[in-house]
Give the backbone structure.
Amino acid sequence: RMETSEDSARAPAAAAVIPKTLRLIDFAAARAAELALLASAVGVQRGKAKESTQGGGKRVFQRLPRHLRRRAMSHNVHRLPPHLRRQAQSEAAKCNTVLGDSASNMDKLHKKKRRSRRHNRRPTRLIDHKRRQHTCKWLETHIWHAKRFHMTKLWGCKLPYSRCDKGLRASFNSCLSRCTICDASYYSFVHVVGSLPNLQRFLKELCPTAEDTVDPRTPHAFEAVLYTPGRFPAGALCPLTLEWSAEGDGTLRLSLWLHPSCAAQVASVVAALAADRYQEQIEVLPVEQQAQSVFELRGPRANHILRTVLSPLPSSPSFEIWQRAEQCGPSSVSIPRGGVLTFEVEQPCKRGRKKPQQQPPATATAAVATLAPSSVSTTNTAGLWRWKQQPDVTTVMVHLVRRQGSTLLPNFCCGWDLVIPAGFALPLWISLVFAGAHAIGLREREWIQLEKAALAFPWDFPDTPACAEIEEKELQEKTEEHARRPPAKRPNFTKLRSPHPFTPGWSSVLQPRANDCVPPPPPLVLRRGAVPSPLPAPGLLLCVRLTVLHGRPERPAMLCVPSPSDVGAVGWDAHAAPNADRWVAAASTWHRAGKCTCTSEERAVVGFVTHADFSYFSGVGKALGFVSAAAVATLVGVDPTAICERRAFPLLVRNPASQHYFMAVAVICLDSF
């Protein structure tokens, strides 16, 4: 490029400004202040980056140690330690000044941020919970259970089914050494008030098999099976708990604890019977749904936990009984089965929580102390059913019903049923759990029933309308679920020869030979005190307890009659004296040798399993089922009416998705509880 005249004129001026040589020491000394300011800005000190909380070229959250750093610290100063938040706010303010429009957009995003859960849980916002209950009702403890349990819709209620954190073994350990608690507030109550003779006649028509050996004037509770009036021994409706209580004016109150699956039907039957035959003699009060909350406490520490949480007032009707019961040991039966205690306690929300305390050891004299039912006060024990909250009263009426274990395991799962008026369930529930009670759901409750060899309603009552309704619903749901799976991923029940894979097929048991012209007879379960005369041959079922030494039975497994070769392989004699222990030992040896019966020869189906699971108590599979009485009489060799309780005999168990039969020991059970 050729130099112009303008360039030649600028050259002398530039040469005068820029020196030809530069001495670094003099240049740095002249600009020491500028270099110090630069070093403090970039955080350079002695050749290393300054990582302290003061100065440096990083943001305040970047200068924290790595174990204290959290995500979103750049725009959320509350995630920083409190002593650094002011500095972080100042840095954020500088960034907003530089960013301009983008900072305003960030502020808009912060304004749209969702508020805290505590803000959304204010009492005024909880009104929405009532709106969400239009399809199914909630228990008072629903919010507590929904955080910790798998919930299910059943019988028009939202109920806790199983725990999210622990399984059945934890519930088994709690039953043995601690205490379990289950919210059974879905039960309904029907109350009948009248004189003693009228109520006894009324009860005899509804529950012909009720065995009540205690004076009705003594407050107590007992179990019975309710039948449709005039149809006994057919027409069973449901098992229920009956409770006698005194009104204080010479009349008595009979309270019926009803399961929600049959509450409406039983209430209509009771009201119709009272209106037809007992006009102006007894009074039937309307059904109360969730007017009271019911908690089931089971386990050896149930007494100790109740003593920790409840403090009865000295003026309560059962205060002396409760004081005497406190002197008894935790494992002793201080109150007889069905004993009822009623007293006033301080409201749970005002008393607060108590930490779990060590259970005191029982003395030798107190461990054998017992209380007779007649010692319970009869002044006015029906106060709970009429109790209403007063504005200035800080006490609440509490109802306790003693529950014992089964006949096979007397000390297993004994405890109390705690009844409290509605509105106080949640604070009392939290206090009981905080005191050491292990909360369980429906799945754990059914498993405990199986361990006790007790029947669970409605699944174990095939002659009731509630069982037929739930089986129909279960059949529809499982059929749809089975159809959704591809053929390669589901069992072929046709090839497995399982005609009833989802629910028990009682029609095939009651009418083995199919006849389209004659409908199958309705099932009729043989219970204690309910032997019909004359005996209907085709429609009679017997309840059996099964011990399966190999494998785990499932519902609805088929119960089949073993062939003579099957019985001979084990070495059993069906006509010998019943010895279940010897047969269990023989079957255990048989199964340890790896023997099982395959489907080379199909066996005759005589019944189905209604409830089955693995038993932690016995270490084997346990099940409850129903078999044809005629088949059992042929197998045992006696008349069905002469079959004694606990007579053992062999049966084969086959699961719906299996081709193998496994030997089991069956024991006849005539009790329904």
In short: Residues 465-484 form the longest helix (20 residues). Confidence is low (pLDDT under 50) at residues 44-55, 99-103, 361-380, 574-578. The two ends are 114 Å apart (CA to CA).
